Amino acid sequence: MRWTFSSVRLRKPHKPGRKCAVIILLTLLLVSALIGRPVLHLAQTAWKDTAAKEPLKEGFVDDASRMNAMEISEVWPVPLDTQEAEAQLAQLFARAQSEGLPISIAGARHSMGGHTLVPGGIMVDMTSFNKMTLDETNNLLHVQAGAKWSQIIPWLDERGKSVAIMQSNNSFTVGGSVSVNCHGWQYGCPPIASSVESFRLMGADGNILNCSRTENTELFSLALGGYGLLGLILDVNLRVVPNERYRLEQKIVPAEQALSTFDEMIEDPNVAMTFARMNITPDQFLRNVIITVFYRDPNPSETLPELTDLPLAAIRRPVFRGSSNSDYGKKLRWQTETKLQPYLRQSYYSRNQLLNEGVEIFENRSADYTDILHEYFIPRDGLEEFTTALHEIIPRHNQDLLNVTIRQVEEDEDTFLRYADQPLFAFVMLFHQPRTEAGDRQMESLSMELIEAALQTGGRYYLPYRLHATPQQFHRAYPQAKQFFALKRTYDPGELFQNQFYLKYGRSSEMDQ
Question: Would you say residue 171 has pLDDT above 70?
Answer without folding.
Answer: yes
